[in-house]
Design brief:
This protein is of the alpha+beta class. The protein folds into 2 domains: about 180 residues, Ribosomal Protein S5, domain 2, CATH 3.30.230; about 100 residues, Alpha-Beta Plaits. Helix content is about 35%, strand content about 30%. Strands 1, 2, 3, 4, 5, 6, 7 and 12 form an 8-stranded mixed beta sheet that branches. A hairpin with a 7-residue loop joins strand 6 and strand 7.
């Protein structure tokens, strides 16, 4: 038995942390963009003796990770605890992730890993979950491991998601910026996401700093109100840049790249949370060396 899932990577422009003891309600408000490059997951289930093999880009992580450190393992573990009818000791599960974007750099990779694992296993075993219920398990895994707060919802929605109320898919409230003919409805054609990554930032290190979280939340509340009153892509990018500066999260090296990108595109900022500059553009061209160019993904997470 086999199933494949594509989860688009999700870049957050700005966000507000919303805490709650219920992991399905805990999450974030904010907005961002999804890319047509992300995480492609293939899950194979066959007869076996309970063996679980997980690979990222062909490299096995089975001997190295556990449900306490790997979001794929944690997602599988959550499904296993909810499903008693499957004889887990009589099967072999192989999970192959193809990660197409930089890791720990603000692309929501952990959400893609969790979504691919949950959705593929739910389909293979014909579990009694809706699409959003299976995606909610991925959100739960992210919350437990502190690897993300809203990327699962963003990846499910696609396009330019706006997370209006926190929580897992089907529980939180989300919308997206309406577009399809250019940022200002001036020209036909797809939009591009141009990005440049200089390094990594561990999401949990920021999310566990109460002082930083408080500062982030104060700034983010104003950003969301301004975006909802004028839901345009150029406004999203302006607010994202304002958020990055006001919170002090923007890296000086990233700021230099963002300033260049802003002059060439519809707007640029720093990915939250990652040492990555990103911009939305009507063309794939950039004067910045070594950029990654992707298209905006409108469809969201889906089976292949």
């Amino acid at each position: 038995m086999q199933s494949s899932v594509f989860a688009p990577s999700h870049i957050t422009g700005f966000f507000e942390v919303v805490d709650d003891p219920n992991p399905f309600i805990k999450g974030s408000r904010g907005a961002g963009v999804t890319l047509d490059q992300g995480v492609l997951t293939q899950v194979d289930v066959s007869e076996g003796n309970g063996e679980i093999i997980i690979k990222n880009n062909g490299k096995s992580i089975s001997q190295k990770y556990s449900p306490d450190t790997s979001v794929s393992y944690r997602t599988l573990d959550l499904i296993r605890k909810q499903t008693e009818l499957i004889e887990w000791d009589d099967i072999k599960i192989t999970i192959n992730h193809q990660v197409q974007v930089p890791v720990e750099s603000g692309f929501g990779v952990s959400a893609g890993l969790a979504l691919g694992t949950s959705l593929a296993l739910s389909r293979i075993f014909k579990l009694p979950f809706t699409f959003y219920q299976a995606a909610a398990i991925a959100h739960h895994a992210e919350i437990q491991l502190k690897t993300g707060l809203g990327d699962v919802t963003g990846a499910v929605i696609g396009g330019f998601p706006i997370r209006i109320e926190p929580g897992a898919p089907g529980i939180g409230k989300a919308d997206k910026i309406l577009y399809g003919s250019g940022a200002n409805n001036k020209s036909q054609g797809d939009l591009f996401v141009i990005s440049k990554t200089l390094g990594t930032i561990e999401t949990s290190s920021v999310l566990q700093d109460p002082a930083m979280t408080g500062k982030i939340n104060i700034v983010a509340r104003h950003m969301l109100k301004k975006l909802l009153s004028n839901p345009k892509i150029n406004n999203l990018m302006d607010l994202s840049f304002e958020f990055a500066r006001e919170t002090g999260l923007i890296d000086p090296d990233i700021l230099e790249i963002v300033e260049v990108m802003k002059d060439e595109t519809l707007g640029a900022s720093m990915a939250m949370l990652g040492k990555t500059a990103f911009a939305i553009s009507e063309t794939p061209d950039s004067s910045v060396d070594g950029v990654m160019v992707a298209r905006v993904d409108n469809c969201g997470c889906r089976f292949q």
